[in-house]
Every structure is written in C-alpha cells, then in structure tokens.
Amino acid sequence: EKGNFEHYMLKEIFEQPTTIFDCMRGRLMANKGLVKVGGIREYVDQLANAKRIIIIACGTSLHAGMVAKYLFEEVCRVTVEVEYASEFRYRNPVIRDGDVVIAISQSGETADTLVAIEKAKEMGAIILGICNVVGSSIPRTSHAGAYTHAGAEIGVASTKAFTAQLTVLYLIALQIAKEKGTMENERFRRILNELDSIPKKVQKILDNSYIAQSLASLYLDAKSMIYLGRGYNFPIALEGALKMKEISYIHAEGYPAAEMKHGPIALIDDEMPVMFIATKDATYEKIVSNIQEVKARKGKVIAIVTEGDDAVKNLADHVIEIPEVDEILTPLLSVIPLQLFAYYTGVLRGCNVDQPRNLAKSVTVE
Ligand code: F6R
C-alpha cells in the first residue's frame, strides 16, 4: 500500500529510517560494543581468514558492493574485488582456496548473479548471499548469508533495498574487523554509535526533501548530467546517475571526480549540471578543486555537503546539506538526496517513476 504517498518509490525512500533500523535490529548493540550478524555465524572464521573477497552483483546492488570494497579493505585489511555478475560468469575466473564470494541482490533472482555464484560454488568458493527477498534463489544457492529486511520493494528503482544492503555490509565488515583486530577499539566503538544514529540522520535529510524537489524543478530540462564523487562516494555518484537515468530518462553518468579531466570535462558548458558529492572527508580538498575546475568552465554545480560547510557553498550554485558522520558511513546519507532528486525530476517530467519503461523489477533473463 502506498499510504499517503503518490508513488511507491517515494514511500520507499521515506521508509529508510525504519528499514535501516530494522536491518540493524538484533545485530547491532552499540551501547555494548557488539555487532553480530547471525546468518554468517558459521562463516566468521572463513571471512576473517579470507585471502580475498569477491563481490558479485548487478546494477544498484553492484554499487553497494563497490562501497563495500572501500570498507572491507579499510577496516578488515582484506583484498576485495567487485565484479559485474554478467562478466564474472562468462570469464574463466581464478578462484583460490580461501576465497569468499559475496553475492548482493535485492530480488535474489537476478539470473546473471545466480549463475555466477553457481559457477563460483562449483570452483570451491564459499558463497554468502545478501538478499532482500526471503527464500529466493540466491539465498538458497548460497552457503549462508544475511537478509536485508527492508520489506517488499515495489518501485522498480531500488532505494530502500540499497541502503539496507549497505547496512548489512557495514555490520559484517565491523564484525569481521573486530574478529581480526584490524580496527582500533576507540574507532570501532565510535562507528558503532554513529551507525546507531544513522536512521535519525536519514530522517533529517528526508525532512528537507523540498530542497531536492526545488532543484528538480530547476534542472528538469537538462539533456545530460554528470555525477562526481571520490572514495566512498564514488559508487554513490554512479548510483545517483543510475537513478536519474532510470527515473527521468535524462542521460546521466557518474565518474570518480578525478577522472573528469581524462575526458568528461569536454562535455562541460553553461548548460551542464554537475552533481558533486563533496562531504568533509579525506578527499574533500581534492573535490573542492574539481568543483573549481567545473565552475571555471561555467558548469552548473550542485553539491552535497556536510552541514555547516562554507567553502563549497561559496563555489557551488546550490548545495544540499547532510548531517556530519564518519567518512566511512557517508554513503548511507549522501545517496538519499540523490534518490529524491531523481524521483522529483522524474515526476516533474511526467515519467512513470514506479515502472520506468523497458525495466523489470527482477531480471531473470540474461
Ligand atoms: C536499479 C535497479 C537495478 C537492480 C539490478 C539488480 O534501480 O533496481 O539496477 O539493482 O537489476 O537487481 P537485484 O538486486 O535484484 O539482483
């Protein structure tokens, strides 16, 4: 049921404080310094001792996997590869003893992801599934895994399932980091507390959804858009662009911000909106200079910034503020305005946002 919302997509975007909370329920006990994902109980050792983690997914789920690469490498000190399921399954991939494969899928039915894990399983890998639909094919094929508990996602564009996937990945990464002793205890406790307060911060962004709405009305006639981010927010740039393409049919591409000068910068003129994710993190100074490069070419800059930021506010044409949070958790917040921006742009352009043309909720054909 859509309730008071005009579309399922909007309802699902607004459910995120609840779905993220539900996903952490019984798994995160921040006040006790505990994090435990029950579903992977029997594979904690394998994960902690894995020489390599290979993440396999498609679309939005792949973007969650890309965030997890930064995360697992930083907090668990393990090599992570992220791969499109459709590429993995048709290559002749190398699987070694001690490799762990994590498949991420909202539906649990994506054909390419399913076949890819069947192949990896035959080759001897341990398969963990992170899925939303209980009892679907991918969890049934996996050795173990964790559900995202986001509830049914009806809108074709994935929103609440994405933030729930990220949440599960944070929980698993933190549990493994604790197990391995790869994270300083004080930081570990702080991140647990910050994760605990994420639903509240997501709510705060949603309370200001009118900002994304008003920006949508300014840019709804754009022919094309560029999304740029670095580090943890590079995959979020890809995700923001994917949402925009799907929902509004505006051509949008995401890049790591530094790649701009290797090609995409040629596209920038006074009609090109460029969405920057420019939160206060390790790459902040670099992003600020990327914004200057776009402004020097008269591009229109929208920037997602940390509350209270002034430097970017002075440079950008528009900013959307998000609450301050440890850098590793920013994706859970920075993606929200991008979902809203895509949604409102699609609605204003008269698109069928819940069922975009040519798309299906679960891609069971290759
Ligand atoms: C984008 C979207 C798709 C899916 C992709 C994978 O909004 O929904 O890109 O993320 O088709 O689907 P699942 O996660 O069901 O394997």
Could you explain how this protein is built, in words?
The chain has helices at residues 8-14, 16-24, 44-49, 59-76, 85-90, 111-122, 137-141, 160-180, 185-196, 198-207, 209-219, 234-248, 284-296, 311-315, 330-348; strands at 28-29, 34-35, 52-57, 79-84, 99-105, 126-131, 144-147, 224-229, 251-256, 273-277, 300-306, 318-322. It is built from 15 helices and 12 strands. It is α/β, with parallel strands linked by helices. Helix 10 (198-207) runs parallel beside helix 15 and helix 11 (209-219) packs across helix 15. Helix 14 (311-315) links the parallel strand 11 and strand 12. The model has no long low-confidence stretch (mean pLDDT 96). It is globular. Strands 4-3-5-6-7 form a 5-stranded parallel beta sheet, sandwiched between helices. A 5-stranded parallel beta sheet has the order 9-8-10-11-12, with helices on both faces. Bound molecules: fructose -6-phosphate. The site of fructose -6-phosphate has 15 residues, from helix 4 and helix 12.
Shape estimate: globular
Quaternary state reads single chain
Look at the structure and give the mean pLDDT: 96
Helical content stands at 40-55%
Round the Cα radius of gyration to an integer and report it.
20 Å
GO molecular function: carbohydrate derivative binding; glutamine-fructose-6-phosphate transaminase (isomerizing) activity
Subcellular location: Cytoplasm
Catalytic activity: D-fructose 6-phosphate + L-glutamine = D-glucosamine 6-phosphate + L-glutamate
Enzyme class: transferase
